Write the structure tokens for this entry.
Amino acid sequence: MKEKYWRKNIFYLRILLTIWFICSFGFGILLAENLNQFYLGGFPLGFWFAQQGSIYMFVILIFIYVYLMNKLDKKHNLKE
Amino acid sequence: MDAQFWTYLLVGVTFSLYIGIAIWTRAQSTKEFYVASGGIHPVLNGMATAADWMSAASFISMAGIISFLGYGGSQYLMGWTGGYVLLALCLAPYLRKFGKFTVPDFIGERYYSKNARTIALICAIFVSFTYVVGQMKGVGVAFSRFLEIPYDLGVIIGIGIVFFYAVLGGMKGITYTQVAQYCVLIFAFTVPAIFISLQATGNPIPQIGFGSKTTDGVYLLEKLNQLSVDLGFEKYTDINQTTLINVFFITAALMFGTAGLPHVIVRFFTVPKVRDARISAGWALLFISFLYTTAPAVAAFAKVNLINTVSNAQYSEVPQWFKNWENTGLLQFDDKNADGIIQYVADEEVNELTIDRDIMVLANPEIANLPPWVIGLIVAGGLAAALSTAAGLLLVISTSISHDLLKKNINPNISEKGELWAARISIAVAVVAAGLAGLNPPGFVAEVVALAFGLAASSFFPAIILGIFDKRMNKEGALSGMIVGVVFTTIYIFYFKPQLGGSGLPKDYLFGISPEGIGTIGMIINFIVSLVVSRLTRPTPENIRDLVESIRYPK
């Protein structure tokens, strides 16, 4: 039971941290030059990811994790 | 009513508020003093964490730095927010489940070693102390510039306030004052930004206005790129490929450093449950993001306003604020070709205007012609940012001494009452020491902050992560990893920072990584050494495996 809970947790971590890396180090830094050809309103896209988008994604990722873990806690009948 | 009046009024009102809160929230036990009894609501803890985290540097200096670096400033924006994802996912819930008071507590118990605890507590004190001196300097500067109070007296007033609520209330008092300070600082930062965004683009939301068209129909960023090119600078939004590797490593060092800073981690010991620790990190980052997504907008607006106002202007006709800031030395005009016109260009030989970066936030309301009360608001906000961070750091120093050193390492039989007194006395001593250092700040304070992040990333972060995620990690592995990581990072930073007496030249950087980003490499080395050594030495004892098992799984 505990084993299953922990494995599921690690599974969520892998996915969410991959997205975390892609949005910041990927879109915001390594690929930013290429993305700058595209525009979001007046923002070159790579620039937008580096100064706005990545931060929004960070907030969203944490709340997704909270949602997933609260559901998992409930399934395993954990109260804390 | 002028700006001076408003500044006195707003600073007076906010300071009385902090003192009022301190009297209302006195701490009665060590548990209240160290972790506010673990009874703080997650939303309030989120606000307190945000205030704890955002220092004078975030409030005053960051937008200015971005203003001058353009895209290059992104490393601070991503670096100082991305660490919260790591905190929420990989650290906070498990450390809350562990349920003790400090980071050295965790390191000491998980690695069943007094030596590990001692190394951790030395790192915690060093990191926190260098940081707190910078805050004291910020307080002194804010007072001396805006209230015409001497710098020294400003620092003493700042110490007095922090002393009062930190010694009296410990973590409990600090938490509730930080909640109030968050409200003050975020209001103070966003109000001028909204005004400026409206003026420039007609859109009240700075995050959107920043990507909108200005009144003449051109996109703001396009205009800024054009202005920059005209003056010989790089385009504001362009990415400099030669420094990209550095942006990458600095961002990473700041992120992993954030997740390893003791004064941030300790905030997650103050909430009631494991699930509260997770959501609380979410609230903290949400509250932080309000400032961090506004700052780049302020940076761009301020840069356009500044260039439009001063570039090629007649010196005799510049607005009053220009003269005011010249008196402080933050703006310097040197009419090299004696034509009476201000040439602000990239070429050092021709450029006649020297601008201190801090001015982009401090003088922003005046440059944009905002009402005088906005200036008072900025000062109150800057002070809130500096004081809240200072208090959180001082608490880490005091718990490290009274709890980790005195109670755990020297005299385990000390009574509850005795420990509470020791905590109060050590925070009092820490406040006074920080103040004294703030009165005579060593010139290298700013440089040492790079060291603080590097050390946090290369010492605490791997030790904590491995302590949670790798059951096989033992005392030998973690200790050797921490020592090698810290020693490598420290030597590199001292060697390549001329301000710290180093003789290294940028051309000799390892893979082109500057000292600010080297913590990332230190961290990787720590991970490798820890893993290798732990596999070659004795396995972890049974009771430690049970401990790791228990922190992974909430009740």
